Protein backbone atom coordinates (compact mmCIF):
# COMPACT_ATOMS: atom_id res chain seq x y z
CA UNK A 1 0.00 0.00 0.00
CA UNK A 2 1.48 3.40 -0.95
CA UNK A 3 2.41 5.57 1.94
CA UNK A 4 2.03 9.33 1.57
CA UNK A 5 3.70 11.32 4.27
CA UNK A 6 1.82 14.53 4.88
CA UNK A 7 4.14 17.15 6.28
CA UNK A 8 2.86 18.77 9.42
CA UNK A 9 3.80 22.44 9.21
CA UNK A 10 5.80 23.93 12.02
CA UNK A 11 4.90 27.39 13.33
CA UNK A 12 6.96 29.57 15.64
CA UNK A 13 5.01 32.20 17.58
CA UNK A 14 6.64 35.35 18.96
CA UNK A 15 4.59 37.04 21.69
CA UNK A 16 5.18 39.47 24.56
CA UNK A 17 1.84 39.59 26.36
CA UNK A 18 -1.25 37.75 27.41
CA UNK A 19 -1.14 35.46 24.40
CA UNK A 20 -4.80 35.33 23.44
CA UNK A 21 -3.82 35.20 19.75
CA UNK A 22 -1.27 32.48 20.47
CA UNK A 23 -4.05 30.54 22.24
CA UNK A 24 -6.42 30.95 19.26
CA UNK A 25 -3.73 29.73 16.83
CA UNK A 26 -2.73 26.76 19.00
CA UNK A 27 -6.37 25.67 19.43
CA UNK A 28 -7.22 26.10 15.76
CA UNK A 29 -4.35 23.94 14.55
CA UNK A 30 -4.82 21.36 17.28
CA UNK A 31 -8.29 20.85 15.85
CA UNK A 32 -7.38 20.81 12.15
CA UNK A 33 -4.02 19.06 12.33
CA UNK A 34 -2.26 20.94 9.50
CA UNK A 35 0.30 22.61 11.71
CA UNK A 36 1.64 22.68 15.20
CA UNK A 37 3.34 25.35 17.21
CA UNK A 38 6.84 24.05 17.80
CA UNK A 39 8.31 27.04 19.66
CA UNK A 40 7.16 30.19 21.43
CA UNK A 41 9.60 33.10 21.66
CA UNK A 42 8.94 35.66 24.37
CA UNK A 43 10.86 38.66 25.68
CA UNK A 44 8.92 39.16 28.94
CA UNK A 45 9.38 36.93 31.97
CA UNK A 46 5.92 36.53 33.52
CA UNK A 47 4.00 37.08 30.27
CA UNK A 48 0.73 35.13 30.08
CA UNK A 49 1.85 33.47 26.85
CA UNK A 50 4.45 31.54 28.85
CA UNK A 51 1.69 29.97 30.96
CA UNK A 52 0.05 28.87 27.71
CA UNK A 53 3.35 27.36 26.53
CA UNK A 54 3.66 25.41 29.80
CA UNK A 55 0.03 24.24 29.70
CA UNK A 56 0.43 23.05 26.12
CA UNK A 57 3.92 21.57 26.56
CA UNK A 58 5.28 23.84 23.85
CA UNK A 59 8.99 24.67 24.20
CA UNK A 60 9.64 28.35 24.76
CA UNK A 61 12.61 30.63 24.51
CA UNK A 62 12.86 33.66 26.75
CA UNK A 63 15.07 36.17 24.94
CA UNK A 64 16.93 39.25 26.10
CA UNK A 65 18.46 41.88 23.84
CA UNK A 66 21.76 39.98 23.60
CA UNK A 67 20.41 36.54 22.83
CA UNK A 68 17.82 38.06 20.48
CA UNK A 69 20.55 39.59 18.33
CA UNK A 70 22.84 36.57 18.29
CA UNK A 71 23.56 34.08 15.50
CA UNK A 72 22.70 31.30 17.95
CA UNK A 73 19.13 32.62 18.03
CA UNK A 74 18.81 32.25 14.26
CA UNK A 75 20.12 28.68 14.51
CA UNK A 76 17.55 27.92 17.20
CA UNK A 77 14.78 29.18 14.92
CA UNK A 78 16.15 27.23 11.93
CA UNK A 79 16.24 24.05 14.00
CA UNK A 80 12.43 24.12 13.98
CA UNK A 81 12.25 24.51 10.20
CA UNK A 82 9.22 26.82 10.48
CA UNK A 83 6.84 27.22 7.57
CA UNK A 84 5.87 30.53 9.15
CA UNK A 85 7.04 32.72 12.00
CA UNK A 86 3.97 34.37 13.48
CA UNK A 87 4.22 37.57 15.51
CA UNK A 88 1.27 37.77 17.89
CA UNK A 89 1.64 40.85 20.05
CA UNK A 90 5.45 40.81 19.98
CA UNK A 91 6.79 44.22 20.84
CA UNK A 92 10.42 44.20 19.72
CA UNK A 93 11.48 44.97 16.19
CA UNK A 94 13.04 41.90 14.59
CA UNK A 95 16.75 42.10 13.73
CA UNK A 96 17.30 42.50 9.97
CA UNK A 97 19.27 39.25 9.75
CA UNK A 98 16.29 37.24 11.07
CA UNK A 99 14.11 38.86 8.42
CA UNK A 100 16.64 38.02 5.71
CA UNK A 101 16.95 34.37 6.76
CA UNK A 102 13.15 33.87 6.56
CA UNK A 103 12.04 35.87 3.51
CA UNK A 104 8.23 36.00 3.16
CA UNK A 105 7.90 33.64 6.09
CA UNK A 106 7.30 36.14 8.90
CA UNK A 107 3.88 37.69 9.47
CA UNK A 108 2.51 40.12 12.03
CA UNK A 109 -0.92 41.18 13.21
CA UNK A 110 -1.68 44.82 13.96
CA UNK A 111 -4.85 45.99 15.74
CA UNK A 112 -5.75 48.74 13.24
CA UNK A 113 -6.06 49.36 9.52
CA UNK A 114 -2.47 50.01 8.44
CA UNK A 115 -0.93 52.27 7.27
CA UNK A 116 -3.08 54.27 9.71
CA UNK A 117 -2.23 54.00 13.40
CA UNK A 118 0.99 52.07 12.88
CA UNK A 119 4.64 52.64 13.69
CA UNK A 120 6.72 52.70 16.82
CA UNK A 121 4.76 53.08 20.06
CA UNK A 122 1.52 52.02 18.36
CA UNK A 123 0.62 48.74 19.97
CA UNK A 124 -2.22 47.19 21.91
CA UNK A 125 -4.38 49.64 23.86
CA UNK A 126 -2.33 52.65 22.67
CA UNK A 127 -3.77 52.03 19.21
CA UNK A 128 -7.36 51.80 20.47
CA UNK A 129 -6.92 54.95 22.57
CA UNK A 130 -5.66 56.87 19.53
CA UNK A 131 -8.57 55.62 17.40
CA UNK A 132 -11.09 56.74 20.03
CA UNK A 133 -9.38 60.11 20.51
CA UNK A 134 -9.57 60.73 16.76
CA UNK A 135 -13.28 59.78 16.80
CA UNK A 136 -12.78 57.27 14.00
CA UNK A 137 -15.95 55.51 12.93
CA UNK A 138 -14.21 52.27 12.01
CA UNK A 139 -11.17 50.28 12.94
CA UNK A 140 -9.97 46.77 12.18
CA UNK A 141 -7.00 44.47 11.88
CA UNK A 142 -4.11 44.09 9.46
CA UNK A 143 -2.14 40.90 8.87
CA UNK A 144 1.04 41.64 6.94
CA UNK A 145 4.47 40.31 6.07
CA UNK A 146 7.29 41.68 8.17
CA UNK A 147 10.05 43.65 6.48
CA UNK A 148 12.82 45.86 7.84
CA UNK A 149 10.47 48.79 8.48
CA UNK A 150 8.01 48.75 11.38
CA UNK A 151 4.39 47.92 10.32
CA UNK A 152 5.32 48.34 6.67
CA UNK A 153 5.34 44.92 4.96
CA UNK A 154 2.99 43.71 2.23
CA UNK A 155 -0.57 43.31 3.49
CA UNK A 156 -2.08 39.82 3.40
CA UNK A 157 -5.49 40.59 4.90
CA UNK A 158 -7.46 43.41 6.50
CA UNK A 159 -10.80 43.13 8.27
CA UNK A 160 -12.90 46.07 9.40
CA UNK A 161 -15.31 46.72 12.24
CA UNK A 162 -17.30 49.73 13.35
CA UNK A 163 -16.30 51.87 16.31
CA UNK A 164 -19.50 52.24 18.35
CA UNK A 165 -20.59 55.57 19.83
CA UNK A 166 -20.22 54.38 23.42
CA UNK A 167 -16.95 52.47 22.92
CA UNK A 168 -14.14 52.66 25.43
CA UNK A 169 -10.72 51.04 25.10
CA UNK A 170 -11.97 47.74 26.53
CA UNK A 171 -15.02 47.35 24.31
CA UNK A 172 -13.08 48.31 21.19
CA UNK A 173 -10.21 45.99 22.14
CA UNK A 174 -12.69 43.14 22.63
CA UNK A 175 -14.15 43.68 19.15
CA UNK A 176 -10.66 43.79 17.61
CA UNK A 177 -9.62 40.64 19.47
CA UNK A 178 -12.66 38.85 18.10
CA UNK A 179 -11.53 39.68 14.56
CA UNK A 180 -7.94 38.67 15.36
CA UNK A 181 -8.86 35.33 16.89
CA UNK A 182 -11.09 34.52 13.93
CA UNK A 183 -8.90 35.70 11.07
CA UNK A 184 -5.32 35.09 12.20
CA UNK A 185 -5.46 31.27 12.33
CA UNK A 186 -7.39 31.15 9.05
CA UNK A 187 -4.95 33.50 7.32
CA UNK A 188 -2.07 31.34 8.52
CA UNK A 189 -3.84 28.30 7.08
CA UNK A 190 -4.39 30.14 3.78
CA UNK A 191 -0.68 30.98 3.56
CA UNK A 192 0.33 27.40 4.38
CA UNK A 193 -1.97 26.11 1.64
CA UNK A 194 -0.83 28.74 -0.90
CA UNK A 195 2.90 29.23 -0.34
C1 LIG B 1 -3.07 42.10 19.75
O1 LIG B 1 -4.22 42.90 19.73
C2 LIG B 1 -2.15 42.46 18.60
O2 LIG B 1 -2.82 42.91 17.47
C3 LIG B 1 -1.35 43.57 19.21
O3 LIG B 1 -1.09 43.14 20.52
C4 LIG B 1 -2.23 42.40 20.98
C5 LIG B 1 -1.72 41.15 21.67
O4 LIG B 1 -2.76 40.50 22.33
N1 LIG B 1 -0.14 43.81 18.47
C6 LIG B 1 0.34 45.04 18.25
O5 LIG B 1 -0.15 46.04 18.71
C7 LIG B 1 1.60 45.08 17.38
N2 LIG B 1 1.87 46.42 16.97
P1 LIG B 1 -2.61 39.01 22.85
O6 LIG B 1 -1.33 38.94 23.69
O7 LIG B 1 -3.81 38.78 23.69
O8 LIG B 1 -2.54 38.11 21.66
Highlighted features:
alpha/beta, single chain, 195 residues, binds glycinamide ribonucleotide
Low-confidence region ranges: none
Helix-strand makeup class: alpha/beta
Q: Note the run of SSEs as H and E.
A: EHEHEHHEHEHEEH
Strand order of the main beta sheet, please? 3-2-1-4-5-6-7
Strand content: 15-25%
What's the helix count?
A: 7
- Rg is 17 Å
Main sheet characteristics: 7 strands, mixed
The 3D shape can be described as: globular
- Average pLDDT: 95
The end-to-end span amounts to 29 Å
What does this structure look like?
This protein is an alpha/beta fold and 195 residues long. It has helices spanning 20-32, 48-55, 65-68, 71-79, 96-101, 124-133, 169-193; strands at residues 9-14, 35-42, 60-62, 84-87, 106-110, 138-145, 155-162. The structure holds glycinamide ribonucleotide. The site of glycinamide ribonucleotide (GAR) has 16 residues, from α1, β5, α6 and α7.
